[in-house]
Amino acid sequence: MIENRKLDHVNIVIEKDVNAHHNYWDDVTIIHQTLPEINYDEIDLSTDFLGRRLKYPIIIESMTGGFPEAKKLNETMAKVAAELQIGMGVGSERVLLKNKDVIDTFSVIKEYDIPLRIANIGAPQLINQKVDSQVTDEDLSFIMDALNAHFLDIHLNFLQEVVQPEGDRNAKGIEQRLYQVCRNFPVIIKETGAGIDYNTGLRLKRTGALALDVAGVSGTSFAAVEYYRAKGMGDKKRERLGQALWDWGIPSPVSVIQLKNLAMKIIASGGIRNGIDVSRALILGADLAGMAGHVMKYASLGYDQLLEEMEMIIEELKAVMFLTGSKNIEALQKKKYIVQGQLKEWLSQI
Ligand SMILES: Cc1cc2nc3c(=O)[nH]c(=O)nc-3n(C[C@H](O)[C@H](O)[C@H](O)COP(=O)(O)O)c2cc1C
């Protein structure tokens, strides 16, 4: 069931438009620097993230693994991540704990020289759900070793759990369990498309997590993904729920602006489509920009197509750095921006 679900997700993301109806990154405008006083050829796009050196401030977000086609997708993304020296995560490794035979669909990424590899598990699996099913520390060591991971992503995905038919809906006790896990593992806590607000960010920081990945509203909506799945299954109730919650959550830029005040590493994700969005994310205070849905569409086409698209995104980021007079990422992060429209409205009321 889980494997089919992950395959469904990938197919739906490739074939349908499952984005939020408004992309809030469009409400951020970067101010042009008419006299940049830097040399384009000397612009340094590299960055350090929790001790890992990346050539560009970008990661491919956690997406897949656990079924045959996922191996090829992960390998395509891994090759690109190694070529560009950017970060990469894999999809939830829950399936691997149930079926060790699928290990190569995840571990394939360790064959490539990726400077930042991230293992992945869902927060709901850290506690008991309907049966005694809690993922143990031993399990977590196993899923990290499978990819020789530098960090462990723990994802919060309650929007998805509430919409999907087979969802894990017990969230009681997760916060306490996160304290335990963060003592023993280098943890990044991430959302999956519904964002994180300041107070939750503060609670998550206190658990001992090293970084937060916001994955807010603007891009892939898991309510939308589950809407299409439910429709395919003829499940009218879940279809309606998915549609009703399509745009549920906190916009990605709102999360970044709020969480940067926590003085911890922040990954901006949710709706990043191009190098201008990457620049917007960094200017708003993020340390890295993460991309999932956009990458998956190109990964499904093949290595050359994904590499070309990622190189284009980097080119756009470099152009913005030049046009803002930013000789490195740190300089870009200090530049000015204005917010308009729905994002301005959010910021004035939250
Ligand atoms: C096909 C697909 C599968 C995903 N699976 C996972 C997953 O297993 N674990 C996870 O933490 N996030 C998962 N995500 C969420 C992404 O990592 C990301 O946080 C979210 O999609 C927002 O980014 P985007 O708007 O660029 O797609 C998945 C996203 C997609 C598109």
Describe the structure in your own words.
The chain has a single domain, classed as TIM Barrel (Alpha-Beta Barrel). The model has no long low-confidence stretch (mean pLDDT 96). With 350 residues, it is of the alpha/beta class. The chain is built from 16 helices and twelve strands. The protein has an eight-stranded parallel beta barrel, surrounded by six helices. Strands 1-12 form a two-stranded antiparallel ribbon. It has helices spanning 2-15, 68-84, 94-98, 103-107, 137-146, 158-163, 174-184, 198-206, 222-233, 236-244, 252-259, 275-284, 293-299, 303-323, 329-333, 341-349, and strands at residues 28-30, 47-49, 52-54, 58-60, 87-89, 116-122, 151-155, 187-190, 211-213, 265-269, 288-291, 337-339. The radius of gyration is 19 Å and the shape is globular. It binds flavin mononucleotide. Flavin mononucleotide (FMN) binds next to α1, β7 and α13.
